[in-house]
Amino acid sequence: MKWFQRVVLLISWLGSSASLLAQRYYTPPFDFDRSMDRAYVDSLLKTTRIRLLGLDRLRPAPTVDTARMEYLHFMAYVHYSGMTHRDSALLVANHLIHLAERKKNIKYQIKGLLVTERYYREVKTDYPRAIKLNHRLLSLIETAPEVYALYFWRIYRNLGHISSSIGEDGEAVAYLQKSIAWFGKDKKIDPVHLSDLHRILANAYKGQQQLAEAEMHALRAWDILNQQPRVSISNKAYLTNDIGLVYNLQQKFTQAIPYLKQSVAYWEQLKAPLPQADALADLAVSYLGNKQYDEAIANAKEALAKNQKVHAPMLTAYSVLMNAYEHQQDWKSAFAYQRLYNDKKREEQRAINQTESLRSKARFDRERLETAYRQERLLQNQRYQTLAKQAEIDRLNNTFKTNEFRRLAQTNALKHQLETQQLKTAAAQKQATQQATIKQLHIDQLRLGLSAQKRIRNLLYIGIAIISSLGFLLLYYSLRLRRTNLTLRTKNREIEMALIKGQTLERKRVATELHDRVSSLLGATKMTFQTMDADILSPRNKTLYENSLNLLNDAVTQVHQLSRNILPEQLLQQDLLVSLKSLVKKLNLVEKTVFSLNYDPSGKLPLSPEVKFNLYVICLELCTNILRHAQARQAHIKLIWYDKWLAVQVLDDGIGLNPSVEGGTGLHNIRERAETIGARFWLESSELAGTKASVLLPLPE
């Protein structure tokens, strides 16, 4: 029976797994500092589209519908916040609203309408339509205020934005205070939004010229922002600009300058020239108020360089330049900027005249919709009262009818009791027969379950035996392979040691041949030349004789040095340091580059002859390359002994490494020698710092 129950549970789990997958939807937080990064925005949209396509493969279920609506809301939010696809945000939000209406999901209707309202308010500046959408949102929330009260603060914030935009700062203050009061209902919301509410409220107070209240709320917003572990730079940039502007209006210019400088730095970090121009223009006003005219002119001109579109910061910058040049008695410049200021002021006035009709219509629509909303609330309360009275009348009628029915029920109670007793007796007999049949079926089912369990157990034993056999075979072949690899590594090591030994013998033979034969031959040639009487030669031939004799001297010296450098006696008998010191002395005889040796270890290095030989040859090859190619004045060989490592570095101050040389045979041989002794070799080169070659060798324990 237990086996049968497990099979049933497995089938039910497989049937429900698809719907459970739909609950695992996750949308990452949007990074507003990357809102202008099109690649970042497109990656979020692409990932969300893939997840939406994945939902199409699942069976229809409420969890699947919820996941689909959440992904649609996230897509609309990313489209809008990314600032590059804002029209697409409206299309996706409308699709979300229609889907939520079909599924009768009020939560996602509210979310979709919030995105649509923001689009019409901020992008299209269609304030009448935005006001209608906000009142539609209020009507949806009123259907279940105990559930959706957490959205009230957003609606009042939106209405505060609109009131501030149409010049109704008093109404904006009232709406924003309501928004702050309702803010605590949303337990999951980021406190950064509360900071934003205080910032907007400060701007509304600023519009009413209540600068003390504006300063208080702006600083409150800054305190909230600084208490959060992660805040977008754009939030800080907007807020510091607003604080500096409030201080400018209060003529507290010294207090305004640090905040405005911070704002300029934030916008520079975000690479946003238009808002940075706004902050620069306000900073220029602060410097002008402090009578720092040069700084005011510089910041105003920089603001104009970054903005030739938005009127307000351009007018501020022109005004600062005009006043600053007047104080410096540069009347020509002051007059020029006065003329530019007047032209821009006329352009701004024309734009204000064009939008004033929209503002008036928005004020009218807001008053009309608020009146309709209040009337609807009043009618709704009246309907509630009427329904309550009707319910009381129905309750009284029902009470009377209940008493009548009770009297009739008492008359028929005995008759019904007798009929019930007869039915119970017949049902008991039938139930006894059914229980006997069920017990027999249960016994048969248990027998089938036991036989099935026995078959499964036998199959499991056979499977375990097969798996165990395969495991033993794999273990056997693994051990054989390991022994084979160990044998191969030993053979490779012996071959490497034989190669090193052969190289050492060959170098010793070549050094002997150079010293005994070539050096003797050159010495004999030199002595033959010296027997000639140079005084009887013509001046030209005498010069050729002296040059030839000098060349022979150089050849004898270089052959002698080469025979000793190929395999120095100290390397075979003494420590690596002694051989390198001797190498440095010989290299300095060339008088082309000054070589030096720096070493950290205090004593003999625990190195095998193979390692000493390869390190010496690597240093010799690198120093030869410096003499040939680097054109360096100085070069250094450094030995640094760490705890369990030896670092050998060869540095020069030459012209750097030519890319064609970097892949040459010499460097390839050096890398092979380093790998032979278990070391790592790398190069660092630049035209300014020369070349640095490093070998890092692990020392034996």
UniProtKB/TrEMBL annotation:
A single Pfam family, by name? HATPase_c
Q: What is its EC number?
A: 2.7.13.3
Q: Which reaction does it catalyse?
A: ATP + protein L-histidine = ADP + protein N-phospho-L-histidine
Q: Which residues cross the membrane?
A: 459-479
InterPro entries for the chain? HATPase_C_sf (IPR036890), HATPase_dom (IPR003594), Sensor_HK_TwoCompSys (IPR050482), TPR-like_helical_dom_sf (IPR011990), TPR_rpt (IPR019734)
Q: Which UniProt keywords apply?
A: Kinase, Membrane, Signal, Transferase, Transmembrane, Transmembrane helix, Two-component regulatory system
> Which terms under GO biological process does the entry name?
phosphorelay signal transduction system
The terms under GO molecular function for this entry are: protein histidine kinase activity
The residues the entry assigns to the signal sequence are 1-22
The Histidine kinase/HSP90-like ATPase domain covers which part of the protein?
Answer: 610-701
Put simply, this protein is called histidine kinase
Q: Which organism is it from?
A: Larkinella humicola
Q: What is the lineage of its organism?
A: Bacteria, Pseudomonadati, Bacteroidota, Cytophagia, Cytophagales
